[in-house]
């Protein structure tokens, strides 16, 4: 499942970088696309689908990255496309807070399926992005640097991403193995409660507040249980859950106080039980008492290690 077909072995994706600028590639100021491997027409089309999803949470600068995965609705006779978005909260080039450094990886959905996207989200993108697209060359102390400040000098033109090389690089060990291991280590007490909520509300989208494990790890654990459809979208570090993919993870209660009608919110309580809140009712989810502090997976990124870029 999720493996490329023989006909799609040599498939390519594209990378687009969003951050604040006086003028984006689309001609406007503020946060927008500042670099891309796409053609202009394809960039316009991509931006129409993802611009509302590119802002990182602003509750903490230098926080862990947030990820969004979504399969886009393709026009007739067009190949379906998926996007995986990595969002880092940042200050803009003049030092003001409330900005973002965002990478959008876009590719045919057959090449960027849910299982592969989860593993990529669990990787260090600076291990496989080309030099000019890496966060280490675009950020300095949480601030997006200007092009003339880059340690590379003038940033090179962004190249397309060879998905047929990226997949074996991610799946040969490191990120994929770490994701699988950590998903298997999610305690049954926690996973069982989520399983009950999903089965009780099969048509509802799900927001998880203050989850003790990385969002991609929880989704992978639920996939192992057969509870996640392969076209399901997710967002792992957000401030709101309105107009978002199916699974949303927030560290604090979403800023949009009203729960969308199609969504259930699950809050992880201090005793590691779940409180379930719906659009019209709030009640504690019945659960067997469990340990106060579960033994959980290793934090993401600690076991994957740094390797040379996959194209070398």
Explain what this protein looks like in three dimensions.
- With 312 residues, the chain is an alpha+beta fold.
- The protein has two domains: 7-177; 185-284, 3-Layer(aba) Sandwich (Rossmann fold).
- The chain has six helices and 14 strands.
- The protein has helices at residues 40-50, 114-121, 163-171, 174-184, 188-200, 215-224, and strands spanning 12-21, 30-36, 66-71, 81-90, 99-108, 139-140, 143-144, 161-162, 205-209, 234-238, 247-250, 263-268, 274-277, 282-284.
- The strands form two sheets. Strands 1, 2, 3, 4, 5, 8, 9, 10, 11, 12, 13 and 14 form a twelve-stranded mixed beta sheet that branches. A two-stranded antiparallel sheet has the order 6-7.
- It is globular.
Largest sheet: 12 strands, mixed
Task: Give the total of beta strands.
Answer: 14
| Distinct helical segment count | 6
What's the helix-strand series?
EEHEEEHEEEHHHEHEEEEE
Shape: globular
Total number of distinct structural domains: 2
Helix/strand structural class? alpha+beta
Rg from alpha-carbon coordinates: 19 Å
Multimeric state: single chain
Q: What value does the average pLDDT take? A: 83
- Spans of at least 5 consecutive residues whose pLDDT stays below 50 are 4-8, 280-312
Give the terminus-to-terminus CA distance: 27 Å
The percent range for helix content is: 10-25%
Range of strand content: 15-25%
């Amino acid at each position: 499942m999720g493996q490329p077909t023989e006909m799609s072995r040599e498939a390519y994706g594209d990378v687009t970088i969003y951050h604040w600028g006086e003028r984006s590639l689309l001609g406007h100021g503020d946060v927008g696309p500042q670099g891309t491997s796409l053609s202009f027409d394809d960039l316009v089309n991509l931006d129409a689908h993802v611009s509302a999803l590119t802002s990182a949470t602003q509750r903490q600068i230098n926080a862990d990255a947030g990820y969004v995965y979504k399969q886009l609705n393709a026009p007739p006779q067009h190949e379906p496309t998926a996007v995986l978005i990595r969002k880092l909260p940042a200050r803009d080039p003049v030092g003001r807070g409330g900005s973002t450094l965002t990478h959008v990886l876009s590719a045919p959905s057959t090449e960027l399926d849910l299982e592969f996207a989860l593993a990529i989200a669990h990787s260090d993108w600076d291990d496989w992005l080309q030099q000019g697209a890496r966060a280490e060359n675009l950020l300095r102390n949480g601030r997006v640097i200007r092009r003339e400040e880059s340690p590379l000098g003038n940033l090179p033109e962004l190249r397309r991403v060879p998905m047929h090389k990226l997949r074996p690089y991610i799946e040969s060990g490191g990120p994929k193995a770490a994701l699988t291991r950590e998903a298997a280590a999610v305690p049954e007490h926690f996973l069982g409660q989520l399983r009950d909520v999903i089965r009780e509300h099969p048509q509802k989208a799900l927001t998880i507040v203050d989850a003790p494990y990385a969002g991609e790890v929880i989704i992978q654990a639920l996939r192992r249980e057969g509870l996640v459809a392969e076209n399901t979208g997710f967002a792992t570090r957000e401030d709101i859950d309105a107009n978002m993919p199916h699974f949303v993870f927030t560290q604090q209660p979403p800023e949009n106080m009203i729960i969308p009608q199609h969504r259930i919110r699950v809050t992880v309580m201090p005793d590691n039980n779940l409180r379930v809140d719906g659009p019209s009712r709030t009640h504690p989810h019945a659960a067997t008492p469990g340990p106060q502090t579960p033994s959980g997976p290793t934090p993401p990124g600690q076991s994957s290690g740094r390797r040379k870029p996959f194209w070398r």
